[in-house]
Amino acid sequence: MKLTAQKKELELAASAFGELQESNQLLLDGSALRERMAEDGYLFFRGALSREGVQEARRECVRRLADAGRLEPETDIMEAIPRRGGEGSYFRADLAEGNAPLLTVLYDGPMMEIMGRLLGGPVLHYDFTWMRAVTPGGGTAPHCDVVYMGRGTQQLYTAWTPLGDIPLSVGGLIVLENSHLRRDITGDYLSQDVDSYCENGPAAEAVRTGKLHWEHPETHEAWDGAFSHDPPALQKQLGGRWLTTDYKMGDLLVFSMATIHASLDNQGDTIRLSSDTRYQRADAPVDDRWMNGPNGEKPIAHGLAAKRGRIC
Ligand SMILES: O=C(O)CCC(=O)C(=O)O
Ligand SMILES: [Fe+2]
Q1: Is the CB of 263 under 6 A from ligand 1?
Q2: 16, 28, 44, 157: which is deepest, by most CB within 10 A?
Q3: Angle between helices 30-40 and 109-119 (to 10 degrees)
Q4: Ligand 2 centroid, distance to 117 Cα (angstroms)
Q5: Residues 6+ apart with CB under 8 A from 201
Q6: What average pLDDT does this structure show over 193-199?
Q7: Mean of pLDDT values over 33-56
């Protein structure tokens, strides 16, 4: 099978593509977890979460998709086969809202224990839960998370959680090996904030009014926060391999704010369900875009209230 990302064929030679290294043997050792994270920019744990718990979370997601007419009738909803001729989807934060079994997987039990060991202290998780229901054809461009959530501490980790078994054909996450160490190339990018804009630039009015969601810091044209839209070329430029695996429910991938990651394209015939959630020390500064308001209001996320002007 040919694998693509951003519709571009990935080179599958051993020098360009490989397996994520599993870190299960470090699970009980906080300092070993921190060392491995510093070295590799990610930690992959096979079966560290409850498979049954993840299955229940998935069941609630697909039940909602089925109720909304998004799944092919007369099929097992747990397979998440999209309705023929139906609308495509990518972000579906609503599937996480009030999804009790999902919130248990993400913010309780083994997940919080692992994060506590990694962070070496009391853990705070963002209130906002990123949830993706990626229909066939979809995928994610190479980026680092800091540009979307870097207003608090940089000691912040993403947990990418497959909410289904996700073989390579269905387009799971890929991590670019050693990319977190390449500030020579990513340095300027890592200092960006997608919700900031040039107050004295040509797109200021468009950003302030919401006509333009984000502007590219140099061109002032529309931007999606990606570092690149060409995963094979980026691999050649940086030299590390694209790393991934045949994900199973219960697996967990954790990575740093400076780690370049993307996804394979979904070349399967099912919807790829996964969540990505964030954890930091409770005593570190927090990016308030992602936390509930004082009266329980939903996070402002990338809404207009998040815009920050700067002189450039
Ligand atoms: O699931 C994806 O396609 C992208 C996930 C991602 O960017 C993240 O986990 O930070
Ligand atoms: Fe990301």
Answers
A1: yes
A2: 44
A3: 80
A4: 22
A5: 215, 220, 312
A6: 97
A7: 98
Contact assessment for residue 48 and residue 65, using Cβ atoms and an 8 Å cutoff: no
- Give the angle 124-252-104 at the CA atoms, nearest 5°: 50
Q: List the CATH number of the domain containing 61.
A: 2.60.120.620
CA-nearest of 136, 139, 137 to 172 is 139
Q: Is the C-beta atom of 266 inside 6 A of ligand 1?
A: no
Please give the Cα distance from 303 to 307 (Å, whole number). 7
**CA nearest 279: which of 23, 43, 26?**
43
Orientation of helix 51-67 relative to helix 100-107, angle to 10°: 140
- Tell me if 296 is assigned to some domain: no
Q: Ligand 2 centroid vs 218 CA: distance in angstroms?
A: 22
Does residue 139 contact residue 262 with C-beta atoms inside 8 Å? yes
pTM listed for this prediction: 0.98
**Which domain does 251 fall in, by range?**
15-281
pLDDT-based confidence at residue 279 (cuts at 50, 70, 90): very high
- Assign 170 a pLDDT band (cuts: 50, 70, 90): very high
What pLDDT band is residue 19 in, cutting at 50, 70 and 90? very high
The sheet that has 173-176: what strands, in order across it?
17-19, 242-244, 173-176, 261-263
Q: What is the 3-state secondary structure (H, E, C) of 152-209?
A: CCCCEEEEEEECCCECHHHCCEEEECCHHHCHHHHHHHHCCCCCEEECCCCCHHHHHH
Query: How many folded domains does the chain comprise?
Result: 1
Q: Give the mean pLDDT of 15-31.
A: 98
pLDDT bin (cut points 50, 70, 90) of residue 244 is: very high
- The atom of ligand 1 lying closest to the CA of 274 is 1
